[in-house]
Structures are given as structure tokens and as C-alpha cells.
Amino acid sequence: MKKITIAIDGFSSTGKSTLAKQLAKQLEYVYVDTGAMYRAVAFFAMQNKLIAADSFNKKALIEALPNIQLEFKFNPNLGFAEMFLNGENVETQIRTIEVSNYVSRVAEVSEVRSKLVEQQQEMGKNKAIVMDGRDIGTVVFPDAELKIFMTASAETRAQRRFDELQQKGDTVSYEDVLKNVVERDYIDTHREDSPLVIADDAIEIDNSYLTREEQFAAVLELVNEVV
Ligand code: C5P
Questions:
Q1: Residue 28: which pLDDT band, with cuts at 50, 70 and 90?
Q2: Cα–Cα dist 41/45, whole Å
Q3: 22 Cα–ligand 1 center, Å
Q4: Which of 19, 21, 104 is the best mutation target for the ligand 1 pocket, counting ligand atoms within 8 Å of the beta carbon and taking the most?
Q5: Residue 1: its pLDDT value, please?
Q6: 0.95 cut: is pTM over it?
Q7: Where is the signal peptide (predicted)?
């Protein structure tokens, strides 16, 4: 069977990573969560006091980029790869609402994007990869054989993210999660470098009213048409 590149883009909290993980498992492909990479850079910026609610030292972050080493390590117990920042597992730290509140501002910086895009292209050079993010089908792999663009209403997405955070014991309110989802969508779609747009050849899936199983079955059919 032909090995392909599957690009999954879309708005925040549309379930991209759930779908991508299911696909990677089924097809025995590598899964790469590019959002985790932007989140790790944002976490680095927070740790080093380069970003706060009312300030962002972009110049210092750009200068520090050579000192930021990102690596995915597969965890066989979880069945997916975890994000390591300079040798430290930061999988838990990068999923907090604080990181979510800063990540889109960090992801606007062109120097950050070019560093991460280069690493992503390297990871996908042998195909057999499912990568999710915001610019995978447009910038990282414009020649991907299958491009999916996922959407759902902001309220549906905020509710899903809120449930996830609550399960982890995070005491955030639904209103704050919704605000974060709407703000990130705005920054991600309006930034100058690689804004979130649907690629001409992407297939759009609105999963507001689809179960995970229905969505997975629909996308597997699309994969089978291509391989
Ligand atoms: O996918 P996730 O919601 O974890 O991504 C976090 C943020 O990282 C996004 O809101 C976006 O600002 C940024 N991002 C990006 N390009 C990607 C993946 C994520 O700009 N390919």
C-alpha cells in the first residue's frame, strides 16, 4: 500500500489530535502534533519571563531560538509521542490554559514558524505521517496527498476543551475557555505569516454533530480512496 502524507488542519479544539492519533494507529503511521511544538516554545518564553499578559520580548525570544531544542519521544504506555523541551518532558505543562493564552502570540513570530516548519518537514520527509496543526496543508506539506480541514462551532469546541481540562482537575471556567478559543481563532486566522486558511484542495469536515466513530469512518474512506 502506498505511504502518504495526511495533513489535518483546523480551528482550535476541533478534535484534530484525536482523529490524527486514531488514523496514525490504524495506518501504522507517525503522528506529529505541531501545536505541541508551538506550545513548548510558548512555555519556554513564559519560563524565561519573555512573555506575560501585557508584555512580549519578541527580540529576546528570537535570539533564544537556537537554545530551544524540541523533540518528540514515543511513550509506548500511552501509544503516542510526548513533547520534550531541552530534554525535559513538558507534556503536562504545555496543556494548561496559561500556555493556551500565550501560544498564538508566540506562533505569530516568523522566526519561530520557520524553525518549527523546517523541523516538521524533516520529520515528514519519508511520508507515512499524520500531522495536525494550522498550516500543514498550506505551508508545511502543500503536496500532501490527503488534506482535511476540521471545523465545529466555537461553543461545541469550548465545551469539549472545558470537559478535558476539568477531567485533568483544572479549575478553569467555561467562559474563560470559550474566550480563549475565540481569541486564538482570531489571531490564528489574521496573522501575517501562514494564517489559518483552508487549502484549495482540502476536504472540510464540520464535526459539531458527528461522533468520533462516524468521523473516523468517514476519513478512513477518504484515505482508502488515495492509497
Ligand atoms: O493545536 P493546538 O491548539 O495545540 O495549537 C496551539 C496553537 O499553536 C494554535 O492556537 C496556533 O496559534 C499555534 N499553531 C500554529 N501552527 C500550527 C500548530 C499550532 O500556529 N501548525
A1: very high
A2: 6
A3: 20
A4: 104
A5: 85
A6: yes
A7: none
